[in-house]
Every structure is written in C-alpha cells, then in structure tokens.
C-alpha cells in the first residue's frame, strides 16, 4: 500500500512505531507492507527536519525501533533508494541542508546511544551499532553523474563525514572512516587530507581505529 500525503508526525509514527521482530524479516520487507512514496521535495524536507532535531521526534522509540526505522528510510538494501536526495527537482540548498543535518543526527542519537565499540572487528554492540557503522556505506547517492551541483554536494558529504570524525564516540568515528574509505577512489586527495588531519590529532586513541583510518585512507574497507 502506497502512502503519499502524511503529516510529519504521522510519518514519524509510520517509520518508527513498528514492532521489532525477533525472528524473520523486518516489517518493511513484507509483501503487503505500506511504503512511503512522497514527492522528493517533501521527503528531503522531512528527513532534514528529523535529522536536525531528532531527540524530540524519537523520544518514545527504543534503540531497536530507531535502528529499524533508519534502515527503512536510508538503506538502499531496504527501501532507501527512492532517489530523493539525488532528485534535481529538489533545490540544491535543500539537499545540502539534509546532508549537513546527518552530522547533527549522529551527534544527538548515535554519539550518546551507540556504544563505543568497533564493528569492523566484530565487537558486540547494541541495536544502533550496525546502522551507525554502515550509514555511509548503504545510504543512497546524493548526486548522479549529470547533476550540475554534483561537486558541491559531494563536498558537503565529505564535510559531514569529517565533522562526525571529530566526535568523541569511537563508533561514530569508525562510521565516518568507513564512509571515507568508500569515497577514497573518487576523491583520493580530499579523503587523504581529512584522514591525515584525524591521525595527526590523535589524543590517545585505540590502535585498532588508527589502523582502520590508515586502511580507509587508501580505500581498503568493506
């Protein structure tokens, strides 16, 4: 069932209120599951509003529900590749604000609620650990090859990942490094400069995350 015109409050309820099943697929993989299919400008507006001020909107949901909802919205293996962020029908300023707001959501949700573990070496975490670690790996593209605003939007993505890299949560740093590692082939100089600044600012980090940073610098991440 297609859902089109939802208020912001109804959209939050639709995305995050579902039960988290202990076995089987998540609700959004059901053949008869409702799915949100708005105009791209509405989608980007709602995502920006959520990412910019996530705590009030998500206050009543568990970590597992938040993880499930974010997967539904943004993971391209779920329903996240709807083309909203790379739609040229959406003004570039709105798309850029949405990208920048990702850092705020990290700071207000993942930093305080995701444990400081490293997923790339399979340390046990909580429900938010994998969505945090995989965020920049599985999120949809922000600009296609023919987009005249592509360079600026990609710069915004790199700036967002560097901002997250400055957080004091190792899991969030790892998430940013994971994303930068996947951007290393397309933007080698920019990625190298960001990671070099990170390594130079080492204030006593674990050796494992510095090793991961060096691997990300040359794109050697999965």
Helix/strand layout:
Elements: E1 2-3, H1 8-16, E2 35-36, H2 40-52, H3 54-58, H4 63-74, H5 92-113, H6 129-138, H7 150-165, H8 170-183, H9 188-200, H10 207-217
Parallel strand pairs: 1-2
Helix pairs in contact: 2-5, 4-6, 5-7, 6-8, 7-8, 8-10, 9-10
Short description:
By secondary structure, the chain is mainly alpha-helical. Helix content is 56%, strand content 2%.
Inertia-based shape: globular
Strand arrangement in the largest pleated sheet: 1-2
The N- to C-terminal Cα distance equals 35 Å
Which percent range fits the helix content?
Answer: 55-70%
Task: Profile the largest sheet.
Answer: 2 strands, parallel
Number of helices: 10
Radius of gyration, in Å, reads: 17 Å
Number of domains: 1
What's the order of the H and E elements?
EHEHHHHHHHHH
Estimate what percentage of residues fall within beta strands: under 5%
Structural account:
This protein has 222 residues and is mostly helical. It has one domain. 56% of the residues lie in helices and 2% in strands. The chain contains 10 helices and 2 strands; from the N terminus they run βαβααααααααα. It has a two-stranded parallel sheet. Helix 1 (8-16) links the parallel strand 1 (2-3) and strand 2. It starts with a strand and ends in a 5-residue tail after the last helix. The mean pLDDT is 95.
